[in-house]
Write a sequence for this structure.
């Protein structure tokens, strides 16, 4: 399968939108860099998840970014009295579009590390796990270095 390399320019944000997203990601967001094995092949992926019980807050972020998806679930069993929790999920290509425009306070180190990982990988047409055409050794070293912290 031929991968098509796509050029994504960072999102243009107003100061209000930028401040809103920076605050939301710093307070409610989780930037992750994970490693796994699928069908015997090592892969890495990055993701941003913003969790909240207020879906309107996440819809507002979605209207600004125009990428990703929102999902929700209600706990079963003894926690069924709690509200539905929603997650706004952004995959690697959406992070390429968003993260260069932002400057976080609390999670700035994580933002920089995710940007390093995204530079080591080749941008693909679709959000998928990276298997070929990326620097596996450098990504593994960065992953192990981040796990030690």
């Amino acid at each position: 399968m031929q991968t098509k390399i796509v050029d994504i320019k960072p999102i243009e944000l107003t100061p209000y939108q930028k401040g809103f997203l920076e605050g939301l990601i710093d307070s409610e967001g989780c930037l992750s860099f994970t490693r796994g094995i699928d069908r015997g092949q090592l892969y890495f992926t990055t993701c941003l998840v913003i969790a909240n019980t207020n879906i309107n807050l996440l819809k507002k972020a979605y209207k600004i970014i125009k990428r990703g998806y929102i999902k929700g679930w209600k706990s079963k069993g003894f926690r069924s009295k709690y509200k539905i929790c929603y997650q706004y999920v952004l995959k690697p290509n959406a992070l390429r579009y968003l993260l260069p425009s932002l400057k976080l306070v609390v999670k700035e180190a994580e933002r920089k590390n995710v940007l390093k990982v995204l530079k080591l990988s080749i941008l693909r047409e679709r959000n998928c796990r990276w298997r070929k055409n990326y620097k596996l050794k450098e990504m593994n070293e960065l992953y192990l270095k981040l796990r030690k912290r």
In short: The chain has one domain: 15-133. The helical segments are 15-28, 55-65, 92-98, 108-120, 136-148. The chain is about 40% helix and 20% strand. Residues 3 and 124 are 6 Å apart (CA to CA).
